[in-house]
Design a protein that fits this description.
725 residues; alpha/beta; Rossmann fold; seven-stranded mixed β-sheet; globular; membrane; EC 2.1.1.-; transferase; Put_SAM_MeTrfase
Length: 725
C-alpha cells in the first residue's frame, strides 16, 4: 500500500524531488550494505590512501607508530595479511618516491625511525585504525610490541652505519677537513641521535624480563668472526662494510653493529702466546701478539720501539722526545714547580697514545696515566700500550663527549700534538676544559707551529680564561711546550670582554657524557659544597682514603672499601687459584666506589673501573680517590682491543642487567673478546644466573676453576683457554 501511494506521488507534477530523494536513499542503502560485507583489508587500504605523511610501508608484523606511549598494531588476522601489506607498500612507496618528501624536522634522523609518522597526524592514524583491531590481535599484543622494539633497534643501528659508512681517508688531516665542512649538520644529527638514545633507554626501563637472564635450556654453537679487521676487531669502532671503495677502517663516531656480535674474534695470524709479565712488560712484549705490517713500517722511523728477535723492545729513556722522556718530564717540572708528579698530580689523561714511554716514566713517579687511543691510530699503538700493561682505552674524539664526568683529571697531556684545537669553534678544547679539574694543567707540546695556528690557539685559550703558565722551546727535545692552567673560580669569566664561547645553561649537566654531543659552551667552575671539584684533592696516597664533603653516603663508601679489602685479602688472593704475579690489566665491570681497585693496589695492578650508565654516578669519587674509570653501557661492546685484560671482575653484574639488555649472552661473548687467553673471570651473582652462565662458559671451552654457592648466592672463577672454533 505504501509503495502504491509512493508511486502515485511520483507521477504528480512535483514528483521529480521525490525521485531524487528515492535515488539518494537507494544509493546510501547500497553503500551501507557494501561496507558491511566488504573485507577488512579493503577497508584499511582505502583509509590508508589518504595518509600522505607515512614515510615507509607498515609491515603487518610491526607497529605503525608511537603515540603517547601506545602502539598501533596490525589490523588483519584472517588471512588477508599479505594482501594488506603489499597494498600498503605499493601505495606508500609511491608517496616516498614521489613529490611528498618528509620534512627533516619530523624525523629525528635519516633512517632511524622510518616507520614514524609526523606528530600532527599521529592521533588521526590512531583513531582511524584502532577501531579495526581484532580480538586475536589484542591477544598477541605482547609479541607484537617486542617485535616492534627489535625492528626499531635495527633501524637505529642501520641509520648509524649508513651515516658513518662514508669514505674516510687514512690521513687524519683530510678527515678533519671533511668534518669541518659539515660540522653544523653533524651537530644536529648527533643531538637527534642522543635524544633518540634516551628514548630507547626509557623504553628499556619499562620492559621487564619475566624469565631468567640466560635460557637454561639453550645450546650454543660458535663460529669465528669474519670481519675486515680480523684479529683486532673492535665493534662499534671498526668499519665492517663490504664496500671495496671504503678506505677508512674506523667510524668517525661510535657506531655499533645492528645486532650484538655473537662470534668469536680469531687469534693473530701467527698465534698468541702468554704475554710477558709485569714489570718486564714495561721493557718488552711478544711481537707476535701485537705485530702487523703498519706497525712494522712505523718502527722504521721511530726509535722508542725496536724489534729484537721475537720481542718488541722499548729501550729505556728512548721516546719521541729527543733527549729522552725523563728530560722532558723534568723540564715540565722546572717550568711549573707546582706540578709535583705523584703528589698533587696523580691522575693524567694522555691524548693520542703516541708514545707509551711517557706513561711508563710517569708510572715510575707514582702517576696513574690513562691513555686515549684515537680511532685514527691505524698503527694500533694503543694495543701496544695495553700489552705493556698501561691503562688505555680507544675512542673517537670528534663530535661526542668523552665518557668521563667533568673536572676529574689533574692534568691532560698531548705530546707532539697535531690536533687542530682551534677548529670547530674550539669544540675539542672545550671538551678538554670540561673534564679537566679546576686549577688543573693542560700540557701541550708541538713541533713547528705556524703563526696562524699559534694565534688561533692563543685567542681560544684567552676566551676560556686559561692562564699560560709557561711557554718554552726546548733545545734538546726540539719541541715547543706550553703549559696552561684552568681557572679555579668563576670570577674571571665575568671579566671577559667577549662572551664567546658563551657560558653553558644552568640546566646543562656537565657530567652527562654517554652519547652526548660536544657543546660549544663553557661550563662554570663548581662552587657549591655539594658539587665535586670545588677543592683540590689531598696529595697521593692520602687521597685514596679521603672521603670529601660532597660525597653522599660516606658510610657506604667506607664500608665498600673495607668489604672489598677483606674479600681480596682473605679470599681472592689465596682461595681462587689465581697466580696474581701474572695479572696486570684488570677490569671491574660494575664498579661502585672503587673499593675493589683500592684493595688491589698493593699487587701492582691497575683497574679500569667501569660505571654503567644506568647505575648511580659514583665515577667522580673514583677519580677523586686517585683511581681511573669510565662510563659504559654494557648492552654495547667496550672500546678496547681484543685480548686486553688479564682479569674481569663482575659482582652481581648480570642480575643487575636483567631488564636492560635484550641479549645478555652477547655480554659473555664480549668478555671472551676482551680477555686474554689464560685470563680469568671472577663472577659473583645469584645461583639462578651462575648455573646457566657456567654452561655458556663451558661452551666457549673456558675452564671452570672453582664454583661455590651459599644461600642462593655464589661465585664462579673461570679461565679462558686459547680455543677458537
Amino acid at each position: 500500500m505504501a509503495l502504491a501511494r509512493f508511486g502515485r506521488q511520483v507521477k504528480r507534477q512535483h514528483g521529480v524531488c521525490v525521485k531524487m530523494t528515492a535515488v539518494a536513499i537507494l544509493g546510501l542503502c547500497f553503500i551501507f550494505v557494501w561496507s558491511m560485507f566488504s573485507s577488512p583489508s579493503n577497508s584499511v587500504t582505502v583509509q590508508r590512501e589518504s595518509f600522505d605523511d607515512i614515510a615507509e610501508p607498515v609491515a603487518s608484523s610491526t607497529m605503525v607508530s608511537k603515540s603517547k606511549g601506545k602502539d598501533i598494531e596490525k589490523h588483519d588476522a584472517n588471512g588477508n595479511k599479505k594482501k594488506v601489506e603489499s597494498s600498503l607498500k605499493e601505495k606508500d612507496e609511491k608517496k616516498v618516491n614521489g613529490s611528498l618528501p618528509l620534512p627533516a624536522h619530523e624525523h629525528k634522523s635519516g633512517k632511524k625511525n622510518e616507520k614514524h609518522v609526523s606528530k600532527r597526524k599521529k592521533d588521526k592514524v590512531k583513531s582511524k585504525l584502532s577501531n579495526k583491531v581484532s580480538k586475536e590481535n589484542q591477544e598477541n599484543q605482547e609479541q607484537e610490541e617486542s617485535q616492534g622494539e627489535e625492528a626499531e633497534k635495527e633501524n637505529e643501528d642501520e641509520e648509524e652505519v649508513v651515516v658513518d659508512d662514508k669514505e674516510e681517508g687514512l690521513d687524519g688531516e683530510s678527515e678533519e677537513k671533511g668534518e669541518m665542512e659539515g660540522d653544523a649538520d653533524v651537530d644536529e644529527s648527533v643531538d637527534q641521535e642522543t635524544q633518540e638514545k634516551a628514548e630507547n633507554e626509557n623504553e628499556g626501563k619499562k620492559r621487564k624480563i619475566k624469565g631468567p637472564v640466560f635460557d637454561p635450556k639453550a645450546h650454543y654453537s660458535w663460529k669465528q668472526c669474519s670481519t675486515r679487521s680480523k684479529h683486532n676487531y673492535i665493534p662499534c669502532i671498526d668499519v665492517e662494510s663490504g664496500f671495496t671503495r671504503l678506505h677508512g677502517y674506523r667510524h668517525r663516531e661510535r657506531t655499533c653493529p645492528k645486532a650484538p656480535p655473537m662470534c668469536l674474534v680469531p687469534l693473530p695470524h701467527d698465534g698468541y702466546d702468554s704475554p710477558v709479565h709485569w714489570p718486564e712488560s714495561k721493557l718488552k712484549v711478544l711481537y707476535k701478539n701485537v705485530g702487523h705490517p703498519k706497525l712494522a713500517a712505523y718502527m722504521k722511523n721511530h726509535n722508542w720501539l725496536i724489534k729484537s728477535g721475537e720481542y718488541l723492545m722499548f729501550p729505556q729513556n728512548q721516546s719521541e722526545f729527543k733527549g729522552g722522556v725523563v728530560h722532558y718530564l723534568e723540564s715540565i717540572e722546572e717550568m711549573v714547580p707546582d706540578i709535583e708528579w705523584g703528589k698533587n698530580i696523580r691522575v693524567v689523561l694522555d691524548v693520542g697514545c703516541s708514545d707509551s714511554s711517557f706513561v711508563a716514566s710517569l708510572l715510575d713517579k707514582d702517576v696513574l696515566t690513562l691513555s686515549l687511543g684515537l680511532k685514527d691510530d691505524l698503527v694500533d699503538l694503543a694495543q701496544v700500550s695495553l700489552e705493556r700493561g698501561f691503562a688505555t682505552f680507544v675512542s673517537p674524539f670528534a663530535r661526542r663527549r668523552l665518557p668521563f664526568p667533568s673536572g676529574v683529571f689533574d692534568a691532560i697531556h698531548c705530546g707532539r700534538c697535531t690536533i687542530p684545537w682551534h677548529a670547530h669553534e674550539g669544540k675539542l678544547l672545550l671538551e678538554i676544559n670540561r673534564i679537566l679539574r679546576p686549577g688543573g694543567y693542560f700540557i701541550l707540546s708541538t713541533k713547528h707551529d705556524s703563526i696562524e695556528e699559534e694565534n688561533a690557539m692563543n685567542t681560544l685559550t684567552s676566551s676560556i680564561c686559561w692562564n699560560i703558565l709557561a711557554h718554552k722551546t726546548d733545545d734538546v727535545s726540539e719541541v715547543g711546550v706550553k703549559i696552561y692552567q684552568k681557572p679555579e673560580s668563576n670570577d674571571i669569566y665575568v671579566l671577559r670582554r667577549r662572551r664567546n664561547p658563551p657560558l653553558c645553561k644552568e640546566n646543562e649537566n656537565p657530567d652527562a657524557s654517554w652519547y652526548v654531543p660536544m657543546k660549544t659552551c663553557l661550563h662554570t667552575v663548581p662552587s657549591a659544597i655539594e658539587q665535586h671539584g670545588t677543592e683540590w684533592p689531598e696529595e697521593w696516597p692520602k687521597r685514596l682514603e679521603t672521603y670529601p664533603d660532597w660525597l653522599n653516603n660516606k658510610e657506604k663508601a667506607i664500608d665498600d672499601t673495607k668489604h672489598w679489602k677483606d674479600i681480596v685479602d682473605k679470599s681472592y688472593l689465596t682461595g681462587l687459584g689465581i697466580n696474581w704475579s701474572t695479572i696486570r690489566n684488570v677490569m671491574d665491570m660494575k664498579a661502585i666506589y672503587g673499593g675493589f681497585a683500592a684493595a688491589l693496589l698493593q699487587q701492582k695492578i691497575w683497574v679500569m673501573n667501569v660505571v654503567p650508565v644506568h647505575a648511580p654516578d659514583t665515577l667522580p669519587f673514583i677519580f677523586e680517590r686517585g683511581l681511573v674509570g669510565i662510563y659504559h653501557d654494557w648492552c654495547e661492546p667496550f672500546g678496547t682491543y681484543p685480548r686486553s685484560y688479564d682479569l674481569l671482575h663482575a659482582d652481581h653484574f648480570f642480575s643487575w642487567l636483567k631488564n636492560r639488555c635484550k641479549h645478555p649472552v652477547s655480554i659473555v661473548v664480549e668478555m671472551d673478546r676482551i680477555l686474554r687467553p689464560g685470563g680469568w673471570a671472577v663472577v659473583r651473582d645469584k645461583v639462578e644466573i651462575l648455573d646457566p652462565l657456567e654452561a655458556i662458559l663451558r661452551s666457549l671451552r673456558w675452564e671452570i676453576r672453582m664454583t661455590y654457592s651459599q644461600n642462593k648466592e655464589g661465585i664462579i672463577c673461570a679461565q679462558k683457554t686459547i680455543w677458537r672454533p
